[in-house]
Amino acid sequence: MYHFSAGCLIFRLDVSFFGWMSHFTSSWLNFRLDVSFFGWMSHFTSSWLNFRLDVSFFGWMSHFTSSWLNFRLDVSFFSWMSHFTSSWLNFRLDVSFFGWMSHFTSSWLNFRLDVSFFGWMSHFSAGCLIFRLDVSFYVQLVKFSAGCLIFRLDVSSFGWLSHFSAGCLIFRLDVSFYVQQVKFSAGCLIFRLDVSFFGWMSHFSAGCLILSPAG
Question: Is pTM, for the whole model, over 0.85?
Answer without folding.
Answer: no
